[in-house]
Structure formats: C-alpha cells, structure tokens
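Hello,

Our lab assistant flagged a job as stuck in the queue for most of the afternoon. It eventually completed. Since we weren't sure the result was trustworthy after the delay, we are filing this so someone can double-check. Below is the sequence as submitted and the structure that was eventually returned. Let us know if re-running is recommended.
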Amino acid sequence: MSGSFSLAGRVALVTGAARGLGAAYALALAEAGADVAVHDLCPVDETCERVRALGRRATALAGDVTRPDTPERLVREALSGLGALDIVVNNAGTIRRAAAAETSDADWLAVLDVNLSSVFRMCRAAGRHMLDRGHGKIVNVASLLAFQGGILVPAYAASKGGVAQLTKALANEWASRGVNVNAIAPGYVRTENTAALQADPARSRQIVDRIPAGRWAEPEDVAGGVVFLCSSAADYVHGHVLVVDGGWLGR
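-- returned structure --
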C-alpha cells in the first residue's frame, strides 16, 4: 500500500489481538505496512505468525490490562521489541449478559474495568509517549451501544458510551499536540462476544432483518476503518466515532 493510507515504517500495538476483531485489526495494519506488537491474555503466536507472513515484524505481549501497571509495561515492551510506537488500538474488551436487576456489582465492575478503565490507562500510557514525540494515532473500540442501550448488557452499554466520550475528551486535549484519538464502533460482528446472539435463531434473524447490508459483519469488514484512522489520510480526524455497522443506525 502506498500514499496517504500506507502505514509503512509505523509500529502499532493492538490489545486483545489473539483472535476475532483484534486479530483482524493487527493483520490489516500489517497489510498496510505496519509492524505490530500483538497483545492478549492468551497466546498470540498465531496472530504474530500471520503478521510475519505478511513481511512485517511482530512481537508478542501478554498481561491483564485491568492491572494498573500493565499499560505502562506494554508500551515499554512494544518500544523495546519494535523500537517505536506510533499507533495503539485499544481492542481488549469483555461482555456479561444479565438483566439489569440481576447484574451483580462484581460483573458491573469487571466490565467497566476492562472496557473503560483499562482503555483510559492505555491511552494515558501511550499518550505520554506520543505527546513527547509530537505525533501518534490512538483508536479506541466503542460499539453501536455507544449510541443505543442494548438489551441485557447494561455494563457493556455504559462502558462503550464511556469509551466514546473518553475519545472525545482526549482529542480535545491532544489534537493540537499532534496526537489523533478516534474510535471505531463496530456493528454486529461474528465473534466470540456475539456467540450467544448468533446461536439464538430468532434474535439473529431480527438482527439481520434490520441491517440494510443483509448480513452480520465479519471481523475483516471492520478492519479497514481502523487502518484509515491510523493513517495520514485521517490526520485531520479527531474525536470521531466511526460507525461500521452495515447501515444499522440509519435504519
């Protein structure tokens, strides 16, 4: 890839990239020319191998992003392993389904910790480095539920709404200093997080019937938006939540 969409010479860190959307983001960034630090709690060897097969460098990172010291360590290890850090994609996330009246404090806090607090800490750790250098791209992963309340996922909806607002708040502070902070908001994608919905024939059919594109997304359908936000083509895009939903919100 060449021109303003090329990521040649850039180094990216993607959290939660062992599989699903995170792996798709890592591979798309590599296809665009970036070297990739691949993070997850579980082994990321397969994603790293696929990045290297594209002719790019990869390094494996591990750690629980909810631990306060993990984000700073991941930034250090990415810098040590690949020599730079130009891009961070905050993809690590979780979901717990229950009626609001039955949602425990433990589940509420667990979802907020992974989906929102850890995103802030990763942004803060990466932002300190990028602000010192005067450039960088951060892409947070929001959701359609940054705009809608969803059903049986109160903590998830709250966390993703928080991600959208955090993205805007950081952009307000950092845009003038050369750091772009944006978010991607995937629609209904075939991943482990949506397995329960996919397995429910009635609910899955209801979802597809509302999507103008007429199908669930595959992880690769969302990855192009991430590449755009990480590229120089998006240098004047700040605080934006890019929806990739097959037309769901417009229905």
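-- support follow-up --
The delay was a queue issue, not a problem with the job. The result is valid. The chain has eight helices and seven strands. Residues 23 and 201 are 27 Å apart (CA to CA).
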